[in-house]
Amino acid sequence: MSARKSSAEFRTWIELDAKAVAHNLDAFRALIGTRPKLWAVVKSNAYGHGLTAFSRLAERAGADGFCVDSLVEGLRLRREGVKKPILVLGSTLPGLLPQAARTGITLSVSSPEALLAIIRMSRPPAFHLKIDTGMHRQGFFTRDVPKVIRALRRTPQAARCMTGLFTHFAAAKDPLYPSATEEQFADFTKTIAVFEGAGWKSLVRHAAATGGALMSSKYHLDAVRLGIGLYGCWPSEELAAAFGDRFTLQPVLSWRSVVAETKRLGPNDFVGYDRTERLRRPTLAAVVPVGYWHGFSRSLSGRGEALIRGRRARTLGRVSMDMIVLDATLTGARAGDTVTLLGRDGRDVLTAAETAGASGTSVYEFLTRLNPLIERVVRGSGTTSQLVTSD
Questions:
Q1: Which entry of 111, 115, 147, 337 is 20 to 30 Å from 97 by CA?
Q2: Which of 43, 173, 219, 231 is catalytic?
Q3: Can 273 be counted among the known catalytic residues?
Q4: Against a cut of 0.90, is the pTM above it?
């Protein structure tokens, strides 16, 4: 069914498909089994989907816990009533450590300075130790592990609060070339053995994000951190090609706007800033109230597309801060019609991967740059749509 009617309340809005969230989570649950914990990675405003909106849907669908980037995000989820485990993947300033302890939020410790701040506390928060096995961002090198163990043994209160051990794969996106991931996993396995030999027998061990979870079951360990896959997108074209025929992902997010006005333009008319586009034929132009401030990248000038009445309409001229102009000649658009910037309209669909590729970036960057002030509307959670406050 073509999206012909627009929202009466918003000039632009984002729709979250509750059924797609449940489908994706169930698919990964079937993949990893019941023993490993399934943690939803909701950092960066849930990859642009809305931190609280998506987290509620994932919790309802059965996620065992959540991974965020910052303590601020974790505290927001606690205020929203999320009681399940929350792991902060990014760094936490020393002054915020007591808040983590009071709210039961688990932190990541990945540097000597962060470990020292934990050791100095009389009542430290729970934390997972991060090991750098080759990503070379956060984490202790494996050669530093003996020093870490000695420091923890001198402070029993900190040693008791270390509840997990993890690493992050740098290149788990191509199942035909797993050597780098295999090397990282072997390094991590050795580190696990060192900690177990030192007396830590019940640490939660985790390494796999979406790509690692798909590539091999041996990477699942005690928990998997699922990000882009839960949102219905593939981490890479290689993984989509390898698993797409037997593992179905459903995009959660659609982005829509409205036609604010239309006008008839003639051959040789210019459109937009800097007169970069000169029309070659009579054109029905549709003005849409979204721009690069909303997340429709300026790099989509002259090449980005949207759907109106189930047909594609190309961006004309420059993408402005708050407006784009579309070539709606083949659509017969009228003011008030719905414009689909991402998602399905009729038989056609614009995917985040397609639009991200047209703008010269990754699906990760494109989605996370969707403006958090855009309203999120949940579809498929009941008989009526549920409006959720922007995050």
A1: 147
A2: 43
A3: yes
A4: yes
